[in-house]
Write a structure and sequence with these properties.
Layout (H helix, E strand, L loop, with lengths): L1 H14 L5 H28 L1 H9 L3 H28 L1 H6 L6 H14 L3 H16 L3 H14 L1 H15 L5 H36 L7
Length: 216
């Protein structure tokens, strides 16, 4: 769904931009592949800690549950910072590895890459946080948090930002605005995940103290 929407809007706003629709599509292809590569290790961390979270939660070892969650968040955040640093230190080399040579397209793709991965240091928290709820038998919360980043926030922003951002910040075009949709969706989803985790930590403390007995 997201790929369809992005490609549709890239053709529309790319045609209005000197870079053109074809080059806009080529640019997003590079950016999306790099984004997948940088995000996969974060997903790997979240999957790796799921059994630890599930077993300890089932055994009511709440202290271990909290420790595992924070270790997972720390590991994913560290990887995210490393990936963000690599992208910002060597953007031209990364773009060039995909065969893009035209200077204008290189500059635009570098800009798009930096913008779309702007929230990379914090995405690990969101991914680990949403998978935490899946590991502890709370799939509805996990689904909601996963959808916030991929669908619920991103798709409306993809439609709205190209119409709004150029009027607020004239230095950006509608095509530029498409790339800002991803970090904005990331920020909103991270904010929601923070709220979910804060509420969950309070619930775990009550569960640990015996004030509540329901695990879910």
């Amino acid at each position: 769904v997201v790929s369809f929407v992005i490609n549709l809007l890239l053709v529309k706003y790319g045609a209005m931009n000197p870079i053109g629709a074809d080059d806009a599509l080529a640019s997003i292809g590079v950016v999306q592949r790099v984004a997948i590569f940088t995000t996969l290790p974060l997903v790997g961390v979240s999957i790796a800690i799921q059994p630890l979270l599930g077993f300890n939660y089932g055994a009511k070892l709440i202290g271990r549950v909290r420790k595992t969650l924070w270790y997972g968040i720390a590991a994913a955040t560290s990887i995210g910072v490393l990936m963000w640093a690599i992208v910002h230190l060597f953007p031209e080399a990364i773009v060039g590895a995909f065969g893009i040579k035209h200077q204008n397209l290189v500059e635009f793709t570098v800009f798009a890459l930096k913008v779309q991965l702007m929230m990379m240091p914090f995405i690990g928290f969101q991914i680990v946080g949403s998978n935490y709820f899946q590991a502890t038998g709370q799939p509805a919360k996990s689904i909601v948090l996963s959808l916030t980043r991929q669908i619920l926030f991103l798709v409306p922003l993809l439609f709205a930002l190209p119409e709004v951002l150029p009027h607020v910040l004239p230095q950006f075009t509608g095509l530029d605005a498409l790339y800002f949709a991803t970090p904005m969706a990331d920020f909103l989803s991270i904010f929601v995940t923070v709220i979910f985790i804060i509420v969950e930590m309070r619930r775990l403390r009550k569960l640990e103290r015996g004030e509540i007995t329901a695990k879910f």
